[in-house]
Amino acid sequence: MLFSGIPFLYYFLPLVLFVYVLSPKKLKNSVLLLFSLVFYAWGEPKYVFLMLLSILVNYGLGLLIERHRADMWGKVFIILSAVFSLGMLGYFKYADFFIENFNALTGLSLPLLKIALPIGISFYTFQILSYTIDVYRGTVKAQRNLITLGAYITLFPQLIAGPIVRYVDVEKRLLERTHSFSKAAEGIRRFVIGLSKKVLLANTLGEFCAAFPAIGDQSVLLYWLYVIAYMLQVYFDFSGYSDMAIGLGKLFGFDFLENFRYPFISSSISEFWRRWHISLGSWFRDYLYIPMGGNRVNKPRFLLNIFTVWFLTGFWHGAEWNFVVWGLYFAVLLLIEKWFLAEFLQKNRVIAHLYVLFFTAISFAIFSGSGLEEALSRVGGMFGAGGLPLTSLSFWYQLRNYGVVLLIAILCATPVFVKLKERLMQNKVTRLCLEVLEIPFLLLLLVIVTAYLADGSFNPFLYFRF
Question: Do both 108 and 193 map to the same domain?
């Protein structure tokens, strides 16, 4: 079930809110768990049993880890938790990838398993691991209520595409949370904005991106137009989903952390990754990079740490070599930045912004491919490989069709409208006007989005791949 779908917006969400509001305080987590399981089972009923198994196994392991944290068995149980969770992820997400590469290396023809990828498994696996690891570290206490832990793992607002919510960040809210009209209003506002980003911007740009491979007269500028459209599509698709998740969280009394902070205004690649998919970057930092020693080690070990983290960051996104290359590409950029470019970038902000946009554009060309060959072909197309002309009729045609949307998307990818609103809110008259117009504006956005969805328009969700 998609947030950006009529069934969710006008059937599922009103029903769960109605039942949740009417339910007594002690049953609210039960309501969330039940509806979250229904939400997940809507798309793939059989895999809800896999999720239930993960909850039961890690519920028991969490209790055992806490009980034996001071002795050897604590290590055994945390290793079992990691092996079980990562084993599930590895089997369902990477089994065919390993078989394909084994066949390529050996010349054998082992049959592929052709396993369907359970939606959201990459996200809820990391959430489970954050819980058991933090119990082992003593950061949090093991949850003794199975329903409460189940509600955390299955919480539908962020279940299938994040942000990756750590147990430590919502532990208190799972046990005691407050609800208010102001918080609900903030949640609705955030949800509608996120929904609009997804449907009106990401989906529209996605129409061009989906049509791009079939366009006949390719050109260098058309490749660049495609890459810019694709990077904005991914941004608004994923940040829009994160906005919707954060907004829904507020409706149910949770405060999820931000996942995106205008990454395209960054002046370094390291800053870009402090602004892009923040929950994933911080997860790898806190649960892998720092435990490996971070940058407090000798240079060879530091290089190993960096390349390990970015190899796994790329591999987390998908079972294709282009994702691995994508991750290692960022590892190389970050090392070059740290050792050679940091001071220069700080002193030359304009050049620094252009540098980030240029190299992130190349990264999205790599990311967009369905395999390494296609990814490299798209990077080559950006620089005229194969004798591509600079421009073509198709470029001007697509620019005419999508130029306005691209311009709006570029502006919305910066904080220009937020800063304008902040300035207007400083004046009493304009602040009153904004407050009066906000509700009609949000309703208008919702009507437009509904009309778009009712028309059966293009409505994919990119991060279902991951």
Answer: no
Residues 408 and 298 in one domain: yes
From the number of C-beta atoms within 10 Å of its C-beta (0-12, 13-18, 19+), residue 268 rates as buried
- 287, 265, 260: which is closest to 276 by C-alpha? 260
Largest CA distance in the chain: 74
The CA–CA distances, whole Å, from 246 to 203, 242, 422, 441 equal: 20, 6, 21, 20
**Quick check: is 317 catalytic?**
yes
Q: Which of 68, 179, 277, 317 is catalytic?
A: 317
| Residues 437/440/446/447 CA torsion (nearest 10 deg) | -140
In a domain, 459, yes or no: no
**pTM score, whole prediction:** 0.93
d(CA 405, CA 205): 7
Return d(Cα 456, Cα 207) in angstroms, integer.
Answer: 13
63-66 long-range Cβ contacts below 8 angstroms, 24+ apart: 63/142, 63/144, 65/132, 65/135, 65/136, 65/142, 66/135, 66/141, 66/142
The residues near 429 (Cβ < 8 Å, ≥ 6 apart) are none
Phi, psi of 294 (to 5 degrees): 55, -130
Asked whether residue 376 is domain-assigned, the answer is yes
Nearest-10 Cα torsion for 273, 274, 278, 280: 50
pLDDT, one tens digit per residue, over 291-345 is 999 889 999 999 999 999 999 999 999 889 999 999 999 999 999 999 999 899 9
Domain boundary among 177, 196, 215: 177
Query: How many other C-beta atoms can be found within 10 angstroms of the C-beta atom of residue 418?
Result: 11
Least confident of 19-33, 42-56, 226-240, 393-407: 42-56
pLDDT tens digit sequence for 103-122: 999 988 899 998 888 888 89
Domain that holds residue 274: 183-454
Same-domain check for residues 430 and 317 = yes
Q: Tell me: the pLDDT tens digits for 424-462?
A: 888 889 989 988 898 999 999 999 999 988 876 666 656
What per-residue confidence (pLDDT) applies to 458? 63
User: For residue 420, which of 429, 406, 431 has the smallest C-alpha distance?
Assistant: 431
